[in-house]
Amino acid sequence: MRRRTALTVVSAAIGGAVVPLSFAPAPAAAKERRGPQSPTARWDFDERTGTVTREAVSGTADPIGYVFTDARYKPDSDPVRRRGVSGRALYFDGYSTVVTAEGPGRLDPAGGITVDAWIAPYAYEHGIDGKAQALVNQHDPDAKTGFLLGLRRFGQIVFQLGFGTDLIEVKGALDQPAAKGRWTHVAATYDPAALQLRLYRDGRLIGTAATPDMAPELASAEPLLIGRHNRPTLINGEFHANMYMGLMDSLVMRPGTLDDTTAEREYAERVAALPARRVPRPDLTLDRARFDGDRHRPQFHMLPPWHWMNEPHAPVYFKGKYHIFYQHDPLGPYWGQIHWGHAVSTDMVHWRDLPIALAPAADSVAPDGCWSGSACVDGDRGPVLFFTGGDDRLPYRQRTGIALSSYPTDGDTDLPTWTMRSEPVTEALAGLPAGPGTAWAENFRDPFVWEEDGVWYQLVGSGIVDYNGTQVTRKHGGTALVYTARRPEGPWTYRGPLYWNDLTKVPEPGEMWELPVLLPLPGPEGKRTGKHILLVSPWWESFNTNAVKHTYYWIGTFDKRECRFVPDHDKPREFDFGQHFTGPSGFVTPDGRSVLFSITQDRRSEQQHAQSGWAHNAGMPVSVSLRQDGTLGVEPIAEANGLRGSRLAEIRQTSVQEANRRLADVSGDMLDIEAVIEPHDATTITLAVRASADGSEQTLLSYDTTERRFWIDRGRSSLDPDVRKGVHGGTVELDGGRLKLRVLLDRSMLEAYVNGTNSLTSRVYPTREDATGLRLTSEGGSARVVSLDVWRMNGAYDTPVAPAAYDPPRPTDVDALPNHDFATGDLTGWTVVSGTTFSDANVTTRTDWGWGGPFNQAETGEDPAGHHLWGFNPAAGGDDATGVLRSATVTLGGDGVVDLLVSGGNDPDRLYAAVVRAGDGKVLAKTTGRDVEQYRRVVFDLSAHIGERIYVEVVDRATGGWGHINVDDVNVPVRQE
């Protein structure tokens, strides 16, 4: 669990403190060849526990950077280790695992260098900014010095060596990659006699490159990093790219040169020394236990074993099993590197993880990402996957591809193996006619496919626009383009737009539709009604405050002959009131139900994703139907009841007051709650969940009988100022004079279903361990509880559910820094020391900066308006203005931990927020931004300075682009006088 330790602010480019590496002076290039010598450095990664790995030659213990060494939301845990080729191996998680080494000892580069290791990759990185996925490196690409052994796209092995004037790279053959899911021995060598770099894969030569007739120059001032590039690209101001994901064993650095004969002999000797003279199969399983104790990670909802997911899609039933796929980045909890994850179930609520189904591949329609799609069974051949193939080489970058399972040959109903066809089935074309304009070719994605009466139908999300040459001059609205075929491979015939929204009249569904879904709506008894539901996710080209918050639908009729949808109502309806339910995908179950899957956005910051190691999860599958009054019926699937454990409450025919008294002993963070309440003369009925004993944290679900409105109030859902809060809801009619409520509570997940007609999906992130209580109240009169049942819920996976862990409470006998969160709306309590960049005009409640996304400033009960200090003030010089701002001087008390939100430019010498000792002006700690406007929380452990007089200083001496800094919620524990 996170210990509030000080943040070391370093260059994002190097990812850690610089550790000098000692090398012998490089003489002129040697002309004689020396064979490989004894290692100067070797990492066997044989440790079973701990946060260091030992360099075997020197005996030095090198630290392993790992996200959960000092965990934020769970108990601390060690880096992941598995059985290696020999002994143990270290599992690099793709975004946080990195070894910072003291170096390989003295090494003469002029006499030749050999670097080799065993690796078993789990996933390949895209090659962001043209940089390699580093296995080990100590190089300065700007100075063209040092070396790097790594992987390029699709596992191509590369080695770089710098000569001061050139950084020479040797690339392995494209058909000889470091294959995923198996151990590969990679070796790179510099031969000064032959003036050549060579690469070997499993003892075989796979690439050469010529080098200059001069000695290499090694980057001794750079850290030796294992698993991370020396100059990684920073993604979203938080994540280091160009990192390795997979197992690594026996990394060795040697002086001297490896030749073909020696490479083959050494590899054969390595294999001969292994048990059964065979390289073992690596264990690359992603273990869910890595997140045990995470207080916010859902336990009975579907989510990946690690890292990032977006919408689940392509639900399909085959041979007694339900399959679901999902957008997945295996390299970290951030958007990118899109693969298709895969899970299987017999009931849609208990899940097993399966291998990744689809991954970007060079010889496919999706070298740059496997985006959303759908699935449909094609007889005995089994399910066919339709996906959006990303290819940045194309003018419109997106097209539809298909993938087939190996079921016809292996008979495995888990469907673990899929093969993408190399040819697309539908493509974005310029000038495709669509209603009042043409299809928006740059946006052509998310195929939804079904078969009916021998005809295959495909919807593709797009928009309708006018073009002037190659430029969009007008956007008419979103649409789904219809195609038909007689078989999955096609040929597919374009049939025009299914339906579209006129932006001038109906702007809510956006400029383009993502993830269009068209499903039949069964009646109350499961009978056919002839009606369909059309669901869409709105998309806008530019930043929009409503993006990724809503799902809209129409009820209507599908004209199969004309391939058109005729709605019963012009205005779309919002499917879910909570602004977290997005990305719908659906199918018809074998018993005739229309079931929807969705993604539940977690609304966390990039920093919170990085600290937690995961992002987003699926919502509970829901059944949709047509009610007798023509409205939509929405309920969690009946199988959700199979997750119930022990019953905690069974209350019948009583008052709200008595029911609340009986709920006093009921608590939990994984609950299923069902209630039927007759309001009588009560005006408001409220169920509080995740409530602490003193009410400082609680989430309120309320129904107003006068306004016929149901809503969630998260104003006190969390004491964490970095958690998004708010009130959301919508109109709901009572059902026969009764309020029928179903609530599924799964740690941070909250889903409420009201009267069988509407859902509200939201997120709550309590900080207190006792925020698990339930309370039922009514106002304005006496309501009656007809029934109220509460069950404890079991997990969705075949692993035990670990109890949620919480941070110990911090000292409360302290004061706050005056106006620490700028809640006064001005600089009261702060002093402008110099310059013009800081003034009252810089204190703002703006939630976004106008050309991008949200600031994510602090949200607290003391400052509900969300004031913060935006260093960029167009009226006072913008980025070119400079100045210094200082807080009041106080005595540091409590636990001595200071934290604040900071964003803006990255310039630690001229642009920073600092804690300064008042007595001598010594800077005790400081931080800068990361060239992003979204705030991130920075923590300084200054416990060694408790009792000293300190102040906070915000310094802006930078001009030009990103020449500003933003600050909010400066928390200093002040000793009470």
Automatic annotation (TrEMBL):
Q: Which GO terms describe its biological process?
A: carbohydrate metabolic process
Give the InterPro entries listed for this entry: ConA-like_dom_sf (IPR013320), GH32_Enzymes (IPR051214), Glyco_hydro_32 (IPR001362), Glyco_hydro_32_C (IPR013189), Glyco_hydro_32_N (IPR013148), Glyco_hydro_beta-prop_sf (IPR023296), LamG-like (IPR006558)
Print the keywords alphabetically.
Answer: Disulfide bond, Glycosidase, Hydrolase, Signal
Q: Where does the secretion signal sit in this chain? A: 1-30
Sequence ranges assigned to domain LamG-like jellyroll fold in this UniProt record: 111-261
Domain of life of the native organism: Bacteria
What is the main EC category here? hydrolase
Q: Which EC numbers does the record give?
A: 3.2.1.26
Say if the entry is tagged with keyword Disulfide bond: yes
Q: Which Pfam families match?
A: Glyco_hydro_32C, Glyco_hydro_32N, Laminin_G_3
Q: Name one GO molecular function term.
A: beta-fructofuranosidase activity
Residue span of region Disordered: 27-46
SMART domains, per this entry? Answer: Glyco_32, LamGL
The entry assigns this protein to a family as follows: Belongs to the glycosyl hydrolase 32 family.
Q: What is this protein called?
A: beta-fructofuranosidase
Species of origin: Streptomyces jeddahensis
